[in-house]
Write a structure and sequence with these properties.
single chain, alpha/beta, Rossmann fold, Dihydrodipicolinate Reductase, domain 2, 2 domains, nine-stranded mixed beta sheet, six-stranded parallel beta sheet, 17 strands, 33% helix
């Protein structure tokens, strides 16, 4: 017998659609799950748009005040898909109400807020998950498995980038419903919290804690019109960021993010080099994982020179992570499926009573790295992260 999990979604923008789609599809492709999401209520401030969204996606009820949604007795889990400055108050209220909480990234505006959120949910004993969805692309999960299996050997280097180009024009305003990511009061930071947070989460998952870092940021357009009142105001977010890191395991890393890389819409990449091999991933070819093996794990012997070289793994076989729930081998899945996988894993965690990563506490570590990046950029100095 299935058990309903009544979802209260707060926010109906880009991420609201991605989450609603995942809740709608997970039961079709993961039929073994005992919990079934029910689209119980959705909350946003504009009643007309809210009504259309609820009708399109099949939500039973609407609310225009998030406090009313959190207080509803027919809500089991609150999903936070709003600007970053609202994550903390909603999460604290949901924890006090005993609701499970799913929260978009980054977890908070800064680590101090995140610490408070972690304390609240752990005190309440509620399940949490932060939507670092790129972990759940099959190729990225396969990379995790290969690294954990020792295929790369001692790690030496980790490099990552996340490049976009959508804010280059000085005519793009800041603030408002669609452009809150350019408003420091709503977002907390620019590419550091929006793009690099994804890269850091993946890196911490694959390669372990970051011990120290040094960073530099740039804001190329210094002033923009604020969409909500029409006044020209200083821009407080970082448009671009470059980071050098040292990991606790002794390896070195580089990270770059920008919204000023003309021609790139969502170029998220990472590469990891170890003593026995390397692997690389590119979001634009997300069904592939590239692997170079210098030493075969099965024999411990160096791969013959005439057979050495990078090989491209098409991550679509039933043996690959998550793929036994989708199509036949050779047929790909995409971006939206990573959210379906996140929901499936969260529901499994509820069934087994185990924490599903990344939890609020795990996402706090990513938040600390983001804070250290901004601190280093301000001070022009290396920052050591507490362990």
């Amino acid at each position: 017998m299935t058990q309903p999990l009544r979802i209260g979604l707060i926010g109906y923008g880009f991420m609201g659609k991605a989450h609603a789609n995942a809740y709608s599809k997970v039961g079709h492709f993961f039929p073994e799950l005992r919990h079934r999401p029910v689209l119980q209520a959705v909350c946003a401030r504009e009643p007309e748009k809210l009504g259309r969204f609820a009708e399109t996606w099949g939500f039973a009820h609407t609310e225009t005040d998030w406090r009313a949604l959190v207080a509803r007795p027919d809500i089991d889990a609150v999903d936070i898909c709003v600007p970053n400055n609202l994550h903390r108050p909603i999460a604290l209220a949901a924890a006090a109400a005993g609701k499970a909480i799913l929260c978009e990234k980054p977890l908070a505006m800064d680590a101090a807020e995140a610490e408070e959120m972690v304390a609240a949910v752990e005190r309440a004993g509620v399940a949490t998950m932060v939507w670092y969805n790129y972990r759940r692309l099959p190729a990225v999960t396969l990379a995790k498995q290969l690294i954990a299996d020792g295929r790369l050997g001692q790690p030496f280097h980790y490099r990552a980038s996340f490049l976009q180009d959508w804010t280059i024009s000085a005519d793009v305003p800041q603030g408002g419903a669609a452009l809150w990511r350019l408003d420091a009061a709503a977002a907390g930071s620019g590419v550091t919290g929006d793009l690099l947070a994804h890269c850091f989460d993946t890196a911490l998952w694959l390669n372990g804690p970051i011990a120290s870092l040094v960073a530099t940021t740039e804001t190329f357009v210094k002033e923009r019109m604020h969409q909500e009142h029409g006044r020209i105001e200083p821009v407080g977010i970082d448009d671009a960021c470059m980071v050098l890191v040292r990991f606790a395991n002794g390896s070195m890393g580089t990270f770059e993010s920008t919204r000023y890389a003309r021609g790139h819409k969502a170029l998220k990449t990472f590469e990891m080099n170890g003593a026995d091999g390397s692997l690389a991933f590119d979001l634009h070819d997300s069904q592939y994982l590239d692997l170079f093996e210098y030493r075969a794990k099965q024999t411990g012997q160096k791969v013959e020179d005439q057979l050495a070289g990078w090989r491209r793994i098409h991550v679509t076989n039933f043996e690959h992570p998550y793929m036994d729930h989708w199509w036949v081998p050779g047929l790909t899945i995409g971006y939206e499926h990573s959210f379906v996988h996140a929901v499936a894993d969260f529901l499994r965690g509820l069934e087994s009573g185990t924490l599903v990563e990344p939890t609020f506490r795990t996402a706090l570590e990513t938040q600390k790295v983001c804070d250290a990046v901004l601190q280093s950029a301000r001070s022009n100095a290396w920052v050591t992260l507490a362990r």
